[in-house]
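subagent[fold] <- orchestrator: predict structure for attached chain, return tokens only, no commentary.
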Amino acid sequence: MSAEVDKSQQRPLSADRTGEDVRTSAMDLSSQVRWRLEQGHSGQLSDHDEVIHQTRVDMKRLRALWYLVQPGLSKHGRAQLHQSTQSVASALSGQRDQAVMLALLAEIDPGLPEGALMALEAEIHLRTVAAEVDGCPLEAALQSLELLDLTIRSVDWAAFRRRHLEQGLIWTGCKSQELCRRAIMEADVKALHRWRKWVKVWLYQVQWLLPDASTKWVGLLKPLGSNLGNIHDFDVFLELLRCIIDPELKAALEELEQVVQLKRRRELALVQEMAEVIYAKPAERRCHKVFDRWLKGR
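subagent[fold] -> orchestrator:
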């Protein structure tokens, strides 16, 4: 029987150490990723979709860490870290994107005719298969992880100081707040999808500092990111629908589009409710409080 795929545990940063602690925490997470990929590649973990999902989540956690510490790194150093981390995620992107779209189709299918269902499945495979790497995504990810580990070890952390963490956290929080304003007040769809990324970055950064933070606004970051992710998936799905040009399927696909649009509007309403709470106070102020609590070891 295959073992269950466990989530990784972030090793919180210590306020008593600086750059060396960042490197230690990053390598700790990387080692958990390596174990999961090796177990998946060997067949000990048979749920490859979950292995891929958790690995991509961990790469997002690491990229959030790089954004958190980047004020104290050289331009070359932070570019190397981001590129190496993205390489691991990219090795797995095709399979995961395909799984998400197929799952979404199964969830919202209002009883499509067989022809429409087959056309959609074919479009999903066409759009996602190109991102796979030689049919061995786990092996490719392991190879990229080797480079990531080398990069983490080689980056010069000597100039890094605690104040850089506060600067990085504030930069992320303010960016998230600005994208929220553009997404909701200006109905900017591109900003909406960028906002999704920065909400998750902000959440993971808070978790690197205060993994047990229990304030209401922090507790809403995860569901906000999930709801924004659902909207993103709906938008990608709608693009797939519009790529299918077949007069015989037009009515069925239009009906499906209406179902998806309704779900999207419901998600957007939830997003707006959560955003009102999260951004009720300036993001910079919230970030200062998180940093102060971290310094005090709470």
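orchestrator: received. Logging for downstream: The chain has two domains: 18-91+133-160, 116-129+161-298. The first helix runs from residue 19 to 42.
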